[in-house]
Amino acid sequence: MLRLSALYRYPLKSCKGEPLxxxxxxxxxxxxDRRWMLVDEASGRFLTQRVVGKxxxxxxxxxxxxxxxxxxxxHSAIDIALPVSDAELRGVTIFKDSLxxxxxxxEAGAWVSEFIGKPTRLVQIPLDRARTxxxxxxxxxxxxxxxxxxxxxxIGQASLEDLSQxxxxxxxxxxxxxxxxxxxxxxxxxxxxxxIRIGDxxxxxxxxxxxxxxxxxxxxxxxxxxxxEPLATLQKxxxxxxxxxxxQNLVNDGNGRLEVGMPVTVLE
Length: 268
Hints:
- This protein is mainly beta.
- Helix content is 11%, strand content 38%.
């Protein structure tokens, strides 16, 4: 039997993951997932671990009111409120998307600038300013917050075990930053799924996930592996035209609640 074995949320894009036992869904995926982002103050360009490896050590906990609590080694924790409705809007760029979103204010900006080591701003995306998902996949009205391209990422536990065996060492699931982990399937069974149901919510499987250098960063230490693993192995046996694939991007059709242990049904 397939079951939901783990849930993860990433309140601040490209920072530490938050394991969950249960979570609600809205039309942008898990409630609170990647609704906040760091951007370069001058250019508005988004920041990730791909360039700023130390972001792996930045913890961002989602608060019930939509705000954040940020903490990092050597830095005092700070509570950041959800921007008010008339907050200053900042122009930001994430991949090919340019949009204007609320800025979290100067106190938050000073804290993240000190951590990053250069002028940086913290921004938040409300539901009414969401981006559209990657063109050519899913539906024209599918939307996403600050995740790379789609609201949700699913990985099968057996797929991670298969990769770990090929690499020759145990790999952490958080290295791949999934939202949903499914247990009970064969390795890479998720490649063949088109629609699944968890609880009362149906999900469309819209696109394989192309992996990047971020997978080589240890999520606990922030240190990049010298041997480029596990990306090097993925490129040997999971390569497609768009890159080395690991995991499947999903879109949820409707809201609801997910809880670890729920059965998973493959509908198509």
